[in-house]
Amino acid sequence: MIVSHQIPTLAPGVLRRIHHLALNVADMQAARHFYGQILGLHELSGAEIPATLIELVDRGRVANFRTPDGTILDLFAEPDLSPPAADPTQQFTRANHLAFDIAPELFDVAVSVLHAHGVKIEGEPVTRATGRGIYCYDPDGFIVEIRCDPA
Length: 151
What we know:
- With 151 residues, the protein is α/β, with parallel strands linked by helices.
- The chain has helices at 28-38, 54-58, 107-116, and strands at 20-25, 42-43, 62-66, 72-77, 97-101, 121-128, 131-137, 143-148.
- β3 and β4 form a beta hairpin.
- The longest helix has 11 residues, at 28-38.
- It is globular, with a radius of gyration of 18 Å.
């Protein structure tokens, strides 16, 4: 007689949302400028900072940002961490990219802002059946996409 043992899994919908995403950054000031000033994300301060991170934030080792949908983006200072490759266009096996959604009527404005700040952009904006997108690189070479649904 063969006994079947089913390995348990989480049911669809049990995981509710992404709580936070953490990125290692070599230059905290450059990363804070990119995510906070160029992309306009809200940097947490004061009582908004999780109690477990206050000391690290005070020491400049961590910065926290909130996206408009409430997802938290944590930046961890790792100045001695080598990038996967010196060429940021060289893919590696960890994450591929982080994508932000924008209203279609603001897409061209976002592209202009990236250009105005001298952000490295991969190619030209692309148009697909799913909408428009542009890929750029944060100061650590991580790919960031800004995309919109079809107008």
